[in-house]
Amino acid sequence: MYIGIDIGGTKCSVVYGNNRAEILEKRRFKTTSFKETTDWILESVSSFMDNDVESIGISCGGPLDSRRGLIISPPNLPDWNNYPITEILGDRYGVPVFLQNDADACAVAEWRFGAGRGCENMVFLTFGTGMGAGLILNSRLYRGTNDGAGEIGHVRLYESGHVGYRKAGSIEGYCSGAGIAQYGMGSARILGRLAREGDENAIALFKKIGEDFGKEIAILIDILNPQLIVVGSIYRHCAEFMEDSMWNKIEDEAIKRNVQSVKVVKAQLGEQLGDVAALCVAMHDYL
Question: 5 phi and psi, to 5 degrees?
């Protein structure tokens, strides 16, 4: 049995589950102050601990050091500065504790239990509040030298414009919830509702977002040559308004042979993705 901890900027969850990613118990709470949030995490873990817990896994936004078990002040968790979370939990509970970037953890979850089962080369794209990628290459998670692989949101799409990832014109400035909000039509959720109601401006904007997303995917296809790209969050809910313009741009810009070998699909695990991802980190058999 395993315990998974999913630490987000607005909410956290602690789950107890098995090696089939079946969640047997769960606690969920808002992310508040550093002290209050860590107290809730410790209390939740304590409530699940028993003799059959093999390990604990933690999924959290970066930057972090997965090898040393340090959370290094992520933008949405500014007080978590060089926090040695794996050491603290390991010393307290006496079991192995592992830490992984949330995009990487979600990539593993979709690869093992979701849309990517059986894939050798897969990219997972968050497409949520931000834009990040988790990379499964040659049937292993690829993290890079210092957990920095897959930061596709930082790549420049335009010389100037929307700001994402602290960079004007970046992919995250256009293909993310925070980037979409900069168009001035509200959140992605509001934009999706308007598009379903037939609002022409919302539909046109999604077409533009699809084109930018297609440019992003074309870059990934040409560099990594994956067989599958799995996309979560906004794409999962609003793909119908983006797919045509996205594929048009992919076919215009990516190597034709590579395009013929790839599929782009919605994340399959849905609202359970973060929890399953944390359990996958606990299993720690993906490197």
Answer: -125, 120
* Rounded CA separation 70/99 (Å): 8
H-state helical runs in the chain: 34-48, 85-93, 102-113, 177-181, 188-196, 200-224, 233-238, 243-253, 256-259, 273-283
104 beta partners: none
Cα dihedral: 181, 182, 186, 188 (round 10): -30
Interaxial angle between packed helices 273-283 and 102-113, expressed in degrees from 0 to 180 and rounded to the nearest 10: 90
User: Model-level pTM greater than 0.90?
Assistant: yes
Q: What element of type H or E holds 287?
A: none
Q: Which residues contact 174 (CB under 8 A, 6 or more apart)?
A: 157, 158, 161, 162, 164, 180, 209, 212
- Phi and psi of 189, rounded to 5°? -65, -45
Q: What is the pLDDT along the chain (287 residues), one digit of tens a residue?
A: 999 999 988 899 999 999 999 999 999 999 999 999 999 999 999 999 977 999 999 999 888 999 999 999 887 788 899 999 999 999 999 999 999 999 999 999 999 999 999 999 999 999 998 999 999 999 999 999 999 999 999 999 999 999 998 899 999 999 999 999 999 999 999 999 999 999 999 999 999 999 999 999 999 999 999 999 999 999 999 999 999 999 999 999 999 999 999 999 999 999 899 999 999 999 998 76
* C-alpha dihedral sign at 61, 64, 67, 69: negative
Instruction: Please give the order of strands across the beta sheet that includes 263-266.
Output: 140-142, 133-137, 122-125, 228-231, 263-266
CB of 243 within 8 A of CB of 266?
A: no
Q: What is the spatial distance between Cα 115 and Cα 77, in angstroms, rounded to a whole number?
A: 30
E strands, 44-200, in order? 55-60, 64-65, 70-72, 81-83, 97-101, 122-125, 133-137, 140-142, 163-164, 167-168
